[in-house]
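Limitations
The structure tokens in this dataset are predictions for the assembled complex, not deposited experimental models. Users should treat interface geometry with appropriate caution, especially where small molecules or nucleic acid strands are included. An illustrative entry is reproduced here so readers can see what is and is not provided.
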Amino acid sequence: MTESFSCPLPIQRHETIQMAHGAGGRFSQELMQRVFKPRFSNCFLDLMDDQAKLDLPSGRIAFTTDTYVVTPCFFPGGTIGTLAVNGTVNDLAVGGSNPLYLSAGFVLEEGFPLDDLERIAESMAVAARNAGVMIVAGDTKVVQKGSCDGIFINTSGIGLLRDDVSLSCRNLKPGDSILLSGSVGDHGMSIMTAREGLSFRSSISSDCASLNRMIAAVLDEVPEVHAMRDPTRGGVAAVLNELAVSSSVGIDIDETAIPVRDEVRGACELLGIDPLHVANEGKLIAVVPAQSAAKALDVMRRFDEGRQAVPVGSVTADHAGMVVMRTAFGSRRIVDLPLGEQLPRIC
Amino acid sequence: MKHIDEYRDPKLVSRLVEEIGKKSAGYWTIMEICGGQTHSIMRNGIDQLLPPNIKLVHGPGCPVCVTPLETIERALCVAAMPGVILTSFGDMLRVPGSEKDLFMARSEGADVRIVFSPLEALQIARDNPDKEVVFLAVGFETTAPANAMAVRQAAREGIANFSELVSQAMVPPAMRAILSAPGNRVQGFLAAGHVCAIMGWEDYEPVAEEFCVPIVPAGFEPVDLLEGILEVVEMLEGGRSGVVNAYGRVVSREGNCVARRVMHEVFEVADRPWRGIGVIPASGLVLRREYERFDAEKRFSVGHIAPLESPLCRSGEVLQGHLTPTDCPAFGRECTPQSPLGATMVSSEGACAAYFRYHRNPFVS
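Predicted assembly:
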């Protein structure tokens, strides 16, 4: 009797990312077919060329890029994917452009669960749809286990610049109002409390959202806006400092005016972190001439992202390059740039 | 938010400020011991609210600031050894040794991890039996019980790959050193509320008596601080000394007996060098003989490392209340949070860092 003998067949369906998924062969194609194509499908991407050929109306375009390495890659209120789409969309929008097309480059660690990648891709597709942009080009690379932390995503984007506005961080004028679209610190504290090591859990959800629709509406009705920024890393403090330095003006803000959700405040108190230094991913700072502030706030409040929009301060000719906060007690203090990573204090 | 808003009530704050103004006739210099209090004073601009005859000076109670340079150097040396995981509270990582800090060590390949509790470091030791896990055990009486607990737990479970690089400090001997120093200008103290929560205030009574000063355990919120200041002012105006508690919701005379018991079981009192100040007798804690196998200094033979401080840094004078940070010639010039010369500019609780962050501009004096 001879045993029946058959050639061993390679495993056809993997549950985790293998080096072969980045090698450009059949596995890469399968990854494209299974994960990306069904979710990102559009007339440019579906051609599967090495480049997307885009039709753009004449005019100036804005172009930006950002790389996302957040850990954990799933957190309350978003994923690394929603962040990658919304972050790039927002970077385009705050410059006064209408975001149109994104590219997405993935660096995947060998062994990364395919289910997770699908969830991330799905979240990107939803975010892109919400923002009204298309993902028209992409790339995937796989690196050996230990060479990256699960998944890194780069997105680049282009948008069409409006010609009816002129936004710049050098535009601030004494007397301008500083408007903030909502509560600060939600994203950063959501990530920090979702990380291992903290023995408390919170219900803090990231504010990750695209702002382009709200921004477009504000600019439609208040084209005289002087500057817009989304206060991501470094928080509101970093953005206000950059604006003050770039325009050689001072900025006064009012502590009691800045919305901070109770959960965020509590977590910040416990960790000894200033909410103004904590990252946001769906907030807008707009600097507008004082007489346009009410109108701009009105428009912002029509959108979910801007429901809680408030004026938080004003631009002054005093203390150029500095941001000064009036405390709830009437004293004043400097609001400085955060220094690198936010570190919980000892006691 | 409960437990916060009531202690930050602007109306209550202005009433207390008014009361302090009414009660104070003389010129008084009061030291808040704790770096957390310094930070809160600067952040909330409490010093701006006080009448000009009340001067606050900032004490040595920032654990990061007074950790001697040799401890940082030893930590850097241990972290660079193969097979070591060095664990630490976050704000120690940025404290510069003579050439680098622990962040730089990490970027060079050392396994340096931020933990929120020494018990987390112990868990890392359990999870990595083939590694040596070292916890950088710094701090005052506030961190000592948990640091002691981790060692006791390691001993009970026989976790041989865990050790602590210990640099524990204690407040009362530092207060004695400040009061005994020639040129001392401190007339009353706000004692550190959280230290007193552990230790109670019995140890402060002999200090108050010997030096005829008021010592008032106080909290960290604006209302807490102002209530403490008001108490000190009333005592100074009335010519009274002694210890009066202004932080009743947290501090009791005997403190936390369980925490103290663990602390004394594992640690014993020893002389200790304070960065910028020098050795203060009986002001530190070291592991007792029966726990010395958990002493990283001995395990890794790094006790001999003794580097030199920058000659420009005058943090010792700042820590003793002799010098206001902005009066230091290096402040904001050679010495900034980006490139600190001394630890008082590094820690978020350090007096120099607090001044740089909140008050460096002359418009807020």
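Some entries come with short summary sentences. For this one: The longest helix of chain A spans residues 114-131.
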